[in-house]
Design a protein that fits this description.
CATH architecture of the largest domain: 7 Propeller
CATH superfamily of the largest domain: YVTN repeat-like/Quinoprotein amine dehydrogenase
Distance between the termini: 84 Å
Organism: Climacteris rufus (rufous treecreeper)
Strand order of the largest sheet: 1-28-27-26
Structural class: mainly beta
Radius of gyration: 23 Å
Number of strands: 28
Helix content: 10-25%
WD repeats: 9-50, 51-82, 93-134, 135-176, 177-218, 225-259, 260-292
Order of helices and strands: EEEEEEEEEEEEEEEEEEEEEEEEEEEEH
Function: May play an important role in centriole assembly and/or stability and ciliogenesis.
Coiled coil: 354-388
Largest sheet: 4 strands, antiparallel
Shape: globular
Number of helices: 1
Protein name: POC1 centriolar protein homolog A
Mean pLDDT: 84
Length: 398
């Protein structure tokens, strides 16, 4: 069945620029031109947090893999790290000299990559909040930068009409994809890590294989594409366009599956939840919408739905047979039956424990830096208290 509207969040006072789900789907982070970052609860009737700190439009937001931190980038040239539940406290990263358009955590949560109108891509350590290095071969604004799932590569998209692939270790540009006819608004890695999808002002979505550096699929729309997100199964892609629609592309079939209407005015951002059950979208209409995916309900993800009559195909054409970038490897439920369950459970609980430790490290790092800021304040207070106590004791002895 069609994707259905699950939640509708109103609270931003200007265009929404960015959306991202936390790992457990309990929270949704959004950024807006109104200079605020908001964290919405997926539970009905739960209040939203509005985080104030950026001095200008918030261009991008992302939860850390553990979900215990949120990074944001802004037109005020800074990157901030927030704890998504406390008093909205944050620490600031400064190194860019212009608008920061994109923030992205590596999958281990240790590094952050940012992209900016200063034409650079920068990499930071999360825990020490230290700037590591810049990648600077773009000759115009950089709109978006992402780590590959294994963290070895970085991909970046720019108004110089190129998508560049970088090796994180050598810090060199391995390849430039120059097939876009306009600015490249957004780029991301396929979950397999073997290909990338890019969206542009030339109304196209292009999918490239990063091993052979060749174009695999090309979808021609009729409106500027602002954002895209791969479904975790790797079989689908959702896009947000200036014609106010979200489109779901079937990558195995190489065609348009659904067109989702909801926004009034350009749809600016879209993202799947980390398990793919939902996707969220934001628009210049200040609205944030959460949609239930529905198309994976039938089985394990190898759904091939008939094209809905009446929904436009926008002249989509894909190279379905060539989509060999790890997409066809379907996970079956029986894959692990050979391994004994105890071992599996042990591994799962170990992974969970590690995840938990990482999460706590995240919070500790943040807390320490906030505590440092407060320490001087506390010392002053303490001095005051001691002086008062002295007076009280003196008064009693008198």
């Amino acid at each position: 069945e069609d994707p259905s509207l699950e939640r509708h969040f109103k609270g931003h006072r200007d265009a929404v620029t960015s959306v991202d789900f936390s790992l457990n789907k309990k929270q949704l982070a959004t950024g807006s031109m109104d200079s605020c970052l908001m964290i919405w609860s997926m539970k009905p009737q739960m209040r939203a947090y509005r985080f104030v700190g950026h001095k200008d439009a918030v261009m991008c937001v992302q939860f850390s893999p553990s979900g215990h931190l949120v990074a944001s980038g802004s037109r005020d040239k800074t990157v901030r790290l927030w704890i998504p539940s406390l008093k909205g406290e944050s620490t600031v990263f400064k190194a860019h000299t212009a608008t920061v358009r994109s923030v992205h955590f590596s999958s281990d949560g240790q590094s952050l990559v940012t992209a900016s109108d200063d034409k650079t891509v920068k990499v930071w350590t999360v825990h020490r909040q230290k700037f590591l290095f810049s990648l600077s071969q773009h000759i115009n604004w950089v709109r978006c930068a992402r780590f590959s799932p294994d963290g070895r590569l970085i991909v970046s998209a720019s108004d110089d009409k190129t998508v560049k692939l970088w090796d994180k270790t050598s810090r060199e540009c391995i390849h430039s994809f120059c097939e876009h006819g306009g600015f490249v608004n957004h780029v991301d890695f396929h979950p397999s890590g073997t290909c990338i999808g890019a969206a542009g002002t030339d109304s196209t979505v292009k999918v490239w294989d990063v091993r052979m550096n060749r174009l695999l699929q090309h979808y021609q729309g009729n409106s500027v594409v602002n954002s895209l997100s791969f479904h975790p199964s790797g079989n689908y892609l959702v896009t947000a366009s200036n014609d106010s629609t979200l489109k779901i592309l079937d990558l195995l079939e190489g065609r348009l599956l659904y067109t989702v209407h909801g926004h009034q005015g350009p749809a600016t951002c879209v993202a799947f939840s980390r398990d793919g059950d939902f996707f969220a979208s934001g628009g210049s209409d200040e609205q944030v919408m959460v949609w239930k995916t529905n198309f994976d309900a039938a089985d394990d993800g190898d759904v091939v739905k008939p094209q809905k009559s009446g929904s436009s195909v926008d002249g989509t054409h894909g190279i379905g047979s060539e989509m060999d970038c790890g997409i066809h490897h379907k996970k079956t439920k029986t894959q692990d039956s050979g391994r004994n369950h105890e071992q599996q459970e042990e591994e799962t609980s170990l992974a969970n424990t590690l995840e938990h430790i990482m999460a706590q490290l995240d919070v500790l790092t943040q807390t320490v830096s906030i505590l440092e800021q407060r320490l001087t304040l506390t010392e002053d207070k303490l001095k005051e208290c001691l002086e008062n106590q002295q007076k009280i004791i003196q008064n009693k002895t008198n």
